[in-house]
Amino acid sequence: MRNIHDTTNFRALDPELMQDLLRAQEQDAPARGSWQVLQHRALAWLLGAALLSNVGTWMQNTAQAWFIYETTRSAWYLGLDAFLMLSPLFLLTFPSGVVVDRFERRRVFLVASLLQILCTAWGTLLFVTGQPTVGWLLALSCGTGIGQAFANVAYVSLLPRLVPTREVPQATALNSLQLSVARMVGPLAAGGVLLMLGPAACYAANCLSFVLLLVVAGRVPERPPEAPTMNAFAKITRPLRPLTKLSLWQALARKCGRCATI
Questions:
Q1: Measured distance CA(51)–CA(57) in Å, rounded
Q2: Spatial CA neighbour of 46 closest among 218, 223, 225
Q3: Is 32 left (phi over 0), alpha (psi -120 to 50) or beta?
Q4: H helices within the chain, ranges in order?
Q5: For helices 105-128 and 93-102, angle between their N-to-C axes, nearest 10 degrees
Q6: In this predicted structure, which of 13-27, 166-180, 204-218 has the lowest mean pLDDT?
Q7: Coil, strand, or helix at residue 114?
Q8: What letter would DSSP give residue 1?
Q9: pLDDT of 224-257, one tens digit each?
Q10: pLDDT confidence of 86, banded at 50, 70, 90?
Q11: CA distance 66 to 215
């Protein structure tokens, strides 16, 4: 009985298949650990800047929620503030993806970050001058959410360009880690800053963190694109290509013969 899993049969059937399989096996070599992937300087710089930016964002969100509740004593305004800030992330998911695909991702990130910086700087100015109002803060929350919707997509699409393909999962895991750390550290830091310096300092810190992330994201070098590998459909159909050169009856007879030998 012939062993249909014998690689020599596949080599005789289609020599290119074995080359593709060997190439894929080389690319599937063990990747670095999650922390070792930080040896890529571009990724380390970007994740560090993103961590500081997210900490600043949570500091501003905490300070803004505190001010709105202290001013209105209304839970409804707190919910409205969160809705205006987070709803653009949902409503603009598909449009932001289309924009990032159609235009250069760094330019999209630049424009979106500038919108966030403008909103944060305006909020800082309102608190410094002593003229903050709930209406203004709600409008700035909406503007920040719109900028964040586009900036997030552009940022996520930039990460795979900084590391080899096989190390993208480790880079993604570290990005998720910095998001979680920022959620813990940001509100804690905001409490101390609010107590000592007031909400204006939280807004100013977030504005500076946005500027830092914008500068780093604009300067980190991207890796040259890797040669595309054969897609999944091509890998599945490659062994069947010789059958297309046979007549219908010959192909059916060969298929039936293989099934009978199993």
A1: 10
A2: 218
A3: beta
A4: 7-13, 15-27, 41-72, 75-91, 93-102, 105-128, 134-158, 168-196, 199-219, 232-237, 248-261
A5: 130
A6: 13-27
A7: helix
A8: -
A9: 765 555 555 555 555 556 555 555 555 566 656 5
A10: very high
A11: 30
DSSP assignments along 157-183, one per residue: HHGGGSS-GGGHHHHHHHHHHHHHHHH
Residue with tokens 């504005």: 207
CA distance 64 to 17: 59
Q: Which residue has the tokens 């552009």?
A: 154
- Measured from the Cβ of residue 169, the count of other Cβ atoms closer than 10 Å reads 13
What is the C-alpha separation between 173 and 237, in angstroms, rounded?
Answer: 33
Distance CA(199)–CA(33), nearest Å, equals 40
| Nearest CA among 121, 117, 114, 124 for reference residue 193 | 124
Q: Express as a percent the part of the chain with pLDDT over 70.
A: 72
Distance CA 257, CA 139 (A): 71
Residue 45 tokens read as 């710089």
Q: What CA–CA distance (Å, rounded) separates 52 from 74?
A: 31
CB count, 10 Å around CB of 223? 14
Residue 61 has pLDDT above 90, yes or no: yes
CB 182, CB 44: distance < 8 Å? no
The span from the CA of 112 to the CA of 156, in Å, is 14
Contact by Cβ (8 Å): 42, 221:
yes
Tell me the percentage of the chain whose pLDDT exceeds 90.
Answer: 57
How many CB atoms are closer than 10 A to CB 31? 16
Q: Which amino acid is at 20?
A: D
Per-residue burial over 48-80, b = 16 or more CB atoms within 10 Å of its CB, e = otherwise: ebbbbbbbbbbbbbbbbbbbbeeeeeeeebeeb
